[in-house]
């Protein structure tokens, strides 16, 4: 006997997580799949035969979970199922087709307002926070009565794991931004030091010792011996005959 279960979960986001960070995480399908601790394998596949016509544009995955039939993992096994992922501007839609007639539809959206934004109109009876951002998860489960409670419990546990993963990702992103900022400052300081520590370039009025002088410019067009001091015109040690 099948049972249809519908519920909504609201979880506030920590102040350090922006709306875009949360949306980007929801659009990362592999991270979303790995929120389920029972997942042992997942890979992209083509739309299966049971995909609805409107779901052919979705990204499809084959997912394998490890399950326990008896308490204490006395009897374990594996179960494989397919899931469609469809990105939305503010979140994500998924549709899972599992064995034994399990049909699971989920919609994840980021709601609320960031600092400086006008508060959005509140939906009555939802229990959403008046300020800040939150994750809303709308779930529709169609399955055997005996499995409904287990599936609902697993979904709620994955929702709590999502918030922890988002918080960790936001912290890593902030650390990366700080590291990049420090690196840019260090590079700018090094460039400034190099630009202001170069030796002056020689000019027309300044000559290094190892540079040959331009005799024409240094003697203003006259021969060097004319511009030389009078005492140096006669080379030293030259023989000068005595006058008789």
From TrEMBL:
Coiled-coil region: none
Amino acid composition bias (Polar residues), ranges on this chain: 186-198
Region span, Disordered: 176-205
Domain called DUF7053: residue spans: 2-171
Protein name: DUF7053 domain-containing protein
Species of origin: Trichoderma citrinoviride
